[in-house]
Amino acid sequence: ENSASIPSKEIQFYEQEVEYSCTSQKKQKQGANMTTNSGNDAAVGAKGKFAAIVVCWFLGNGSLISWNSMLTIVDYYGYLFPNYHPSRILTLVYQPFALGTIAILTRYEAKLNTRRRNLFGYMLFFVSSLLVVILDLASSGRGGLGPFICLCAISAAFGIADAHVQGGMLGDLSLMCPEFVQSFMAGLAASGAFSSALRFITRAAFEDSKGGLRKGAILFFSICSTLELVCVLLYAFVFPKLEIVKYYRSKAALEGSKTVSADLAAGGVELKLDQMEIEDPKELERLSIKELFRQNIDYCLDLYFIYVLTLSIFPGFLVEDTGSHSLGNWYALVLVAAYNVVDLIGRYTPLIKILKITSRPILTLACLSRFLMIPAFYFTSKYGSQGWMIMLTSILGFTNGHLTVCVLTVAPKGYKGPEQNALGNVLCCWLLSGIFSGVVLDWLWLIGKGWKKATVTCVNLLEAVLDLVNSTRDRVNGSKSLDLVGPYQGAQQVEFQVDEL
Q1: CA 166, CA 181: separation in Å to the nearest integer?
Q2: Which of 37, 167, 173, 198 has a beta carbon 3.0–4.6 Å from 180's, enabling a disulfide?
Q3: Please, is 9 exposed, middle or buried when counting C-beta atoms within 10 Å of its C-beta (0-12, 13-18, 19+)?
Q4: SS3 (DSSP) at 259
Q5: What's the rounded mean pLDDT across residues 382-396?
Q6: Is the CB of residue 216 less than 8 Å from the CB of residue 199?
Q7: CA–CA separation, 415 vs 227, rounded Å?
Q8: What pTM value is reported for the model?
Q9: What is the mean pLDDT of residues 100-110?
């Protein structure tokens, strides 16, 4: 009422005092909330952290066990399709679908429903694994082009499922704690070790029986289908209801993440973000995909280098180009098992602080130094014994697992929840890019064996196509046939006389 008699300087001073008092109260309230959240975090972590780590391990196992199973029974597919290079062809079919799908999903990751994405991936794994068994039963274990094309289609389905699950889970777990990422990646490696051990058991159990190789493969994929179904149930009904998972997802939602809403609803958590968006919209701002990539380009290239080397050697070179040794038909299985077991061990060693690499330059240097294995594998396959090859394969597996976990657990630190989710998808995209490049480069090992073998393979594929056309046309017309004229000799061109094709 008497403001006119008060000097302007005193009014200005009074306004500053009120503003400072309100700001102090707001900061004290935020500090109290942060203290409460830290206490809740510790309490929640003590309750559900171990259970979440175990579930993450099983989910990681399920996200790759179907594909590892297909690679592990390559001895059976090599018997069914000896002229089609199944270890290389199936991988070459798998990777483009995985890479193309993850690229699209990464582009739109902020708008996707993570729960639907991951459930779709696990269910596709389950259905595709079951189709492998159905295909073998329907074809009565016979080879040929038709069953091989169906098998390639199933391999493509595995690639699509892998892109949904691996990118979605890595993005989701990246906004939680590093132990979850490590456990998930260890589960990925455990799927390889488990599939190798299971393949040893099934092959040994049916080795002396009639059709033992086929019986072991059918039992093998039946077990894998069951495990995939378990993963669907774990992710749908168990994982979203764990207290620590609900805490981290709620925290990410408060930071602006929209990908966790369905998972929070499945866990019984409801959040209203409208008021927060009006009060402080800056809190919901996040870095774009391009900005995250620029800040983490070295981590992306690290993952690319790791997997371009690994997949240029494993499994194609180890299965087909290492010669014959005293282990006979078991040699390829031993090499694959050695890689998978040591890869699993390497994914646990970063838990030891002394062994974990956190320096960005050292990580890049370690990833680049692995390329020295290429000449090592080449000369060992030419002049070394099987013991040296097993040792080199073990080193390949250990460095693959150890460096992968180091990169994926260090990179997301320092970002908000939505940014960590996006970065997890970006890193997974580069990981799959490295796998695809490695699969393509794996074919270069055939140069050392000469182009004649590759040409013969193309001729065998063409003969199979012609046989299929013959049988189909004979059924329709019942008259004319399509014959292959002239045998393949040396480098001569194969000529075909086609009548009314």
Answers
A1: 11
A2: 173
A3: exposed
A4: coil
A5: 88
A6: yes
A7: 34
A8: 0.77
A9: 92
